[in-house]
Amino acid sequence: MSNQEKEQFSDYPLSDRILEALEALGYNRPTDIQKEVLPVLLAGKNAVVKAPTGSGKTAAFAIPVCESMEWEENLPQALILEPTRELTVQVRDEIFHIGRKKRLKVPAVFGGVPVDKQIQTLRQKSHIVVGTPGRVMDHVRRDSLKLGNIKWLILDEADLMLDMGFVDEVKAICALIPAGCRISLFSATLKPEIRQLVEEFIQDMVPIAVEGSAESPDSITQKAYRTDTEEKYQTFLKVLMDENPESCIIFCGTREMVNVLFRKLRRDRIFCGMLHGDMEQKERLKTVDAFRRACFRYLIATDVAARGIDFDNITHVFNYDFPTGRETYVHRIGRTGRNGRSGTAVSLVSPEEMRMAKQTQEYTGRELPFLPCPVVGEEKEKAFWKSQRSKAVIKPAKGEALNAGILCLSIGGGRKSKLRACDIVGTICGIPGMAVSDIGIIDIRESLTYVEILNGKGAMVLECLQTRPIKGKIRKVRKTRGIS
Ligand code: AMP
Asked: Are 59 and 139 in contact (CB under 8 A)?
């Protein structure tokens, strides 16, 4: 059977627990890139992959990595490097979901948040660590992240990682991992710096290039409007009302412009969120999550902040500021018109931006149709404000189906009182009907411990632990939200 003929995940040598997780995630058949990458990685080889965002590349490496993890090992066996904090969280979640049934621990380490909590997490059993190169090196220097048992290194979004100036850290990490560790690389472009990195560090690799549908603009209707800087905002409002998008990303050239546009739209009572590098990390993550769950529908962003982040079902992309690079144009508009859906990309072009717009047309080989500024009639305006007032339908978080039958409990006591995972496991397994396989992730904090009870047995364990001592003491045990 050729790579592209395999239509089911069950056509690959994958364990039931991985297949069950994929089913719960709704991944019914492998994407093109998965069909190319899975056989290579599952056969123990390295891959250097050129693939756009949205092609399913995270799962392409996450599936073989999760498949090969030994649960019993305490030290991390895989390290995944990501260029941004948002991507770190997104990729961590995807890997966590795929490895959920194997009870894999997948900590995320990135800057902008206190390091102590991450150190506590890394001190415990960890299987796959996902992180930004800067914070990963920080943990290596502190000896809180031990690389001695790493068998997989994945350099994800490698071109962005180098664009962001992480080249020294990436090289340092490549040099630190044990000899014989497998290294694979994923990148939207394979520019010379990337090829150099590959030559220096990656042996026996299989090159894979998938020109995914995300970059094909056929499903995307492109439109452009000429505008002056002074009247840009007013033109934008008319275009926005005319299009009345269900959900959109509005790209600006700078963080300042994102701020300005956000304030103007809010002042005009148009509900939106924003994302740029000057925002507090917590705020950025909250924004990504809220937009993903459709708590608001318009996101104003810079390129770097939004790059690689997977937002499902974006109906429109607006270039409030025209991009300064032609590849950026393709990246931006590729955020819409995915997965067989159609999308619209609307650009505002000022006289200074006209040269770049022409270059972009030559690059994409498609004409950018310039239209007269729309006249928004009463009907359209009404429809726009009606949709602004309509209540958002909040989408469930991804991977929720995987949580079925799992209850997370918090237990009074942690590192301070020298509580260890074996104390918790010992007590819980002493409850009639309980086995080790009914216990999921255990996370021991300073004075609190979280433990997941699987297979629908949580309520029974919660009741029993009210009267059963753990390490000689009756503890406060409560139901809690999942482990973060
Ligand atoms: P990525 O390119 O890794 O950012 O993935 C893009 C989106 O596709 C993410 O929302 C994934 O969860 C989703 N995805 C990945 N693999 C599959 C699959 N085989 N079937 C359906 N969706 C998938």
From this structure: no
Indicate the CATH number for domain 217-389: 3.40.50.300
Instruction: Give the residue whose CA is nearest to atom 10 of ligand 1.
Output: 310
Ligand 1 center to residue 17 CA distance, Å? 18
CA of 178 to the centre of ligand 1 (A): 31
Nearest to 360 by CA among 323, 306, 317: 323
Please indicate whether residue 53, judged by its CB atom, sits closer than 6 Å to ligand 1. Answer: yes
DSSP of 130-151: EE-HHHHHHHHHHTSS--TT--
Q: Each residue of 122-153: pLDDT tens digit?
A: 999 999 999 999 999 999 999 999 999 999 99
Q: What is the pLDDT of residues 318-368, one digit of tens each?
A: 999 999 988 889 889 988 987 778 999 999 999 999 999 999 999 888 889
Q: Fold for domain 405-480? A: Alpha-Beta Plaits (3.30.70)
Q: State how far the alpha carbon of 3 is from the alpha carbons of 11, 211, 213, 218, in Å.
A: 10, 16, 18, 26
Q: Which two tokens stand for residue 297?
A: 């529908």
Ligand 1 near 54 CB (within 6 A): yes
Biggest alpha carbon–alpha carbon distance for the chain: 77
CA distances from 458 to 26, 406, 407, 433, 470 (A): 25, 7, 5, 12, 16
